[in-house]
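dumping this here so i dont lose it
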């Protein structure tokens, strides 16, 4: 087997409206059309997609709230970490700087899914 690229990651969400605000407005991702019939939202980032799937039950899986980077998370590169931090704070999103000292921060979407932003 030879894996050639990552296609998408699926995350469970509890609210289409709250998630769309976070991923579209706060993170500024581009929403794309989806062909499946169950409720959800898809986003395109280069050759990669995020599939948000509406679920009646969300089980937060963070095990270390003091160091969010030691939990399951998605990581994205940003042009300016400071601009990203300011935008997250302006939208009342949690911000935790990387404990490693590198130029990265962690935040959470409305359902607790952890997102790393790294410069």
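and the seq i came up w/
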């Amino acid at each position: 087997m030879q894996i050639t690229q990552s296609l998408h990651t699926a995350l469970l969400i509890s609210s289409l409206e709250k998630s769309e605000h976070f991923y579209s407005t706060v993170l500024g991702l581009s929403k794309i059309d989806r062909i499946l019939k169950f409720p959800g939202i898809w986003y395109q980032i280069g050759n990669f997609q995020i599939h948000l799937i509406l679920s009646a039950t969300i089980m937060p899986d963070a095990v270390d709230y003091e160091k969010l980077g030691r939990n399951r998370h998605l990581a994205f590169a940003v042009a300016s970490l400071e601009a990203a931090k300011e935008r997250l704070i302006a939208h009342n999103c949690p911000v935790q700087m990387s404990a490693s000292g590198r130029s990265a921060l962690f935040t959470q979407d409305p359902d607790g899914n952890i997102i790393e932003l790294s410069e």
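The mean pLDDT is 94.
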